[in-house]
Design a protein that fits this description.
18 helices; 23 strands; 8-stranded mixed beta sheet; about 20% strand; about 500 residues; alpha/beta
């Protein structure tokens, strides 16, 4: 039978089993490279048997000896900005303000008269940003350059005037004003945004992704309901709620895990609270000052009492919590708030963690939602700007060894939404021929694979009867792949609830 995207699969034939669950099958322990048939029914795995042992009925997907693994999740995505980024001019490779400004000037002017560029990394530039440098090449067209980390933006005079923003000579706006500005720039026509998101979701499925946690800074329910009503069926989505919308969610009686009407694909996710800034914007809240700026310890954008109040209200309503904390001061405050409130959930990023706080993640059952590619993107920044810090930068193995549940993601559009890139960064702490950065923080491939599934490293999705039929076929054993092989892993097929969302 010839299969195509959208088809229901009854049997995945002639597979080798990778990842969690393989060790539970007695015959797999004898020969882990043996071939099996995986029988599906009603969206779950019905049976697993040696190839040909059971009759192959219905639609058969011939794996031809490819490796079967659990479907992958990205646990931290900003969905619409991720989708729109592919269609915007990037200045990521710029090494100076002048170079970035020249690239931004080449961005097309939108129908609303704005020009938008993305991917700014001004912390690495040879000279600081200035309004004058941007004005010199962009003229009277309102021009906006968004930081790669989303925590700041660089505007020319025309853009500052249009938005009614007062800025210093740098033209930079940071944190909440930058977030508010991003929401304005991402407010594209619904049809355009949804089409971009559908394309991005298809691309994610082609990399083996079956689900994402969408932490976009908007009221997400209406957007995902509209997409479902229009036939969106490519990914599972847990969507976040921000403090400005918490009471609205509570008044609706929402609890984390509730599904939207008409589909079980989209669920209510956690309350997302941003409590400090970022490394690249030099606003992450840290115990010690930033290199070259000893009085700058970053900022806590949400204080302890406010954080406890938000988490208490969410917990009382049955809503989990996802707390953005990058600096060590912010991580300690977040863990303290989990202690006080008894909230369930995760800390997002955890990029700088005190040694004494590592074990608290496990003791409090707080997940560590981390983005390993950031460690490689920001290794030079961390070595420079955090040179005086005594906490651990970008810990992975330390969190794992302390018993924390790791949940891997990309923070797309900050890093590419590609779980194989994420896993390779976690396992090898290097790209290509570069030397590993802090190699003692590597994790093993089995942990990285489990952390890239729905339950995380401690509760990774399993390939066993009764488990959800969210599965992928890949070319190589992910537990034995080298860095390049893992990072560029070919994905032959992605199955979501027994239905093909990608067939390559």
């Amino acid at each position: 039978m010839s299969l195509e995207r959208g088809a229901r699969v009854d049997v995945i034939a002639d597979v080798r089993i990778a990842g969690e669950g393989r060790e539970l099958m007695p015959y797999a322990t004898v020969d882990p490279a043996a071939l099996y048939d995986v029988h599906l029914a009603d969206g779950v795995i019905a049976d697993i048997a040696p190839a040909g042992a059971l009759a192959r009925r219905g639609a058969v997907l011939d794996a031809g000896g490819a490796w079967l693994a659990a479907g992958l999740w990205d646990h931290h995505v900003h969905a619409l900005p991720w989708a729109l980024r592919a269609e915007r001019t990037s200045v990521r490779e710029a090494t100076s303000a002048a170079e970035a400004a020249a690239s931004a000037a080449r961005a097309p002017v939108r129908a609303d008269g704005r020009r938008i560029a993305v991917g700014m990394r001004d912390a690495l530039w040879t000279e600081p940003a200035s309004v004058a440098a941007l004005d010199a090449v962009t003229g009277d067209v309102p021009t906006y350059v968004l930081n790669l980390d989303l925590h700041s933006a660089w505007l020319n005079t025309a853009a500052l005037r249009r938005e009614g923003i007062a800025a210093d000579a740098s033209g930079l706006v940071r944190e909440d004003p930058a977030f508010a500005l991003a929401r304005i720039l991402n407010d594209v026509p619904v049809a355009d945004g949804d089409a971009a998101l559908r394309r991005a979701a298809d691309a994610a499925a082609a990399r083996g992704v079956v689900g994402i946690v969408d932490l976009d800074m908007v009221w997400n329910e209406e957007h995902w309901q509209r997409r479902l009503d229009a036939g969106f069926d490519t990914l599972r989505v847990d969507f976040g709620i921000y403090p400005a919308h918490l009471e609205r969610a509570i008044s609706r009686g929402w609890q984390s895990g509730d599904t939207l009407p008409g589909s079980d694909l989209v669920r209510v996710g956690p309350l997302k609270v941003v409590t400090d800034g970022s490394l690249g914007t030099r606003t992450a809240a840290c115990a010690h000052g930033y290199a070259g700026d000893p009085h700058n310890h970053g900022v806590l954008t949400v204080g302890r009492d406010e954080l406890v109040d938000l988490m208490t209200r969410a917990t009382a309503a049955g809503i989990g919590c996802a707390i953005h904390a990058i600096g060590d001061v912010a991580n300690t405050q977040a863990l303290d708030a989990f202690t006080t409130t008894g909230a369930v959930g995760r800390i997002e990023h955890a990029q700088l963690v005190r040694h004494a706080d590592l074990a608290r993640f496990a003791r409090l059952d707080v997940g560590a939602s981390v983005q390993p590619a950031h460690a490689l993107d920001d290794r030079a920044l961390a070595d420079d700007l955090w040179a005086g810090q005594t906490a651990l930068p970008f810990p992975l193995r330390s969190l794992h060894d302390a018993g924390a549940n790791l949940l891997l993601g990309s923070d797309a559009p900050v890093s590419p939404l590609d779980p194989w890139v994420t896993m390779a960064a976690a396992v090898f702490r290097a790209r290509g021929d570069e030397a590993p950065w802090r190699p003692e923080e590597r994790i093993d491939a089995a942990t990285a694979l489990a952390a890239s599934t729905s339950g995380g490293s401690l509760e990774g999705a399993r390939i066993e009867p009764g488990a959800a039929a969210d599965l992928i076929l890949v070319a190589h054993d992910p537990l034995a792949a080298g860095e390049a092989q893992l990072r560029t892993m070919p994905v032959h097929a992605t199955v979501l609830g027994g239905r093909l969302t990608h067939l390559g």
